[in-house]
Specification:
Oligomer: single chain
Number of helices: 6
Strand content: under 5%
Distance between the termini: 8 Å
Largest sheet: none
Shape: globular
Helix content: 40-55%
Number of strands: 0
């Protein structure tokens, strides 16, 4: 499994926070912060949009680092991704993500 596939199956290399970080793209940080703040009804600022990937060493957004329930669960269970978890098929924590993103489920099962 590629290191840049998040615990939930999303591809970190396609995430705007990751792209803004690796390209040091302030405009993308600002756009992403605005969108994420609206979607999450939370005070997300451009300086919060720095991430090197969910499962690799390095900086992460505040959400990814400490608020993401999927990541916290996977770390606790010590699985590489949710696809390796025995509860995967009936898990509600990752269920919302994979139900809205067919590529995530492919990444987890692939």
């Amino acid at each position: 499994m590629r290191d840049m596939i998040a615990y939930c199956g999303l591809d970190c290399e396609k995430c705007d926070a990751y792209l803004a970080t690796i390209h040091d793209d302030q405009a993308l940080r600002e756009k992403t912060a605005k969108l994420w703040a609206e979607l999450n009804n939370a005070p997300i600022l451009p300086e919060h949009i720095n991430c090197k990937g969910c499962r690799v060493d390095g900086m992460k957004t505040v959400f990814c680092e400490s608020l993401c329930g999927v990541r916290q669960c996977a770390l606790k269970k010590e699985v590489t991704t949710c696809g390796d978890c025995l509860d995967f098929e009936k898990c509600q924590t990752v269920g919302d993500i994979i139900s809205n993103n067919p590529d995530a489920i492919k990444n987890l099962k692939g």
